[in-house]
Fold:
Amino acid sequence: MQFQERLSRYVEEIEQALDQYLMTFGCNGQEKIVEAMRYSALAGGKRLRPVLTMEFCRAVGGDPYAALPFACALEMIHTYSLIHDDLPCMDNDDLRRGKPTNHKVYGEGLAVLAGDSLLTYAFETAARGMNGSDVTAQQAVEAIGILAHEAGYYGMIGGQVLDLAAEHQTLTYEELVNLQDKKTGGLIRAAAEMGCVLGYATEEQREAAKTYANRLGLAFQIQDDILDIEGDEAIFGKPIGSDEKSGKSTFPGLMGVETCRKMVQDLTDEAVCAVKTLPESDFLVQLAESLVGRKK
Structure:
């Protein structure tokens, strides 16, 4: 199967599963909160993290569809983080994926609760992920542990804490890498590691996956920083220049755009090299390369 065909199939399966999970969510008398959850969860996007979960499972010899509930749980957590990230008390953004942000449509209170509900429902979805599949209880528990770890203060939340504390300060390169390794890299790392766990990967394969995720996560964030300077808002899907307005340190601000372009390519090359040892690596290689020079 060609790269684009497999990618489209993964995204379609993820979209359908998210729609089904949120449709079947017990919402008797709670239609408004489910509507707010669906608004952001089904707003499109690259679905990079759940795609990585499914593909890493396949790449090490597992069934990618056994990983689908865990992939959707990860995407729910990513979506909740975006809802909260856009709030006035955080980044105060009005646009996300080309649409008004959740709090602009539903109000701040319901937006907070929609994010909270996606977070808690994510773990319910993952906990039920072994039903009707070959996923063992041990695999499910390990995958859920990875997800909780990388979504919490060690990972994504910790990165957001550092991000808030760093507003209107100039960070060093090392400080900025540490911040983004947590805030952006945490869930990308979780995607790769969960896929490996669910696909019965060896320790060597898991290390390769982690290296790929770390390099890809940093490259992804640097490219995001570049797009925040010179991207097209209609394509990028969120306001251009928001980092500068918020007084945030960025990689282009520290090193310049051209140096950052080279870093994105070098990090991508390192990610590609890491996964060449896996039984199936072509898709992961092409996925990494497709993110170089992306416009959204």
Summary: The chain has a mean pLDDT of 92. The longest helix spans residues 203-230. The beta strands are 95-96, 99-100.
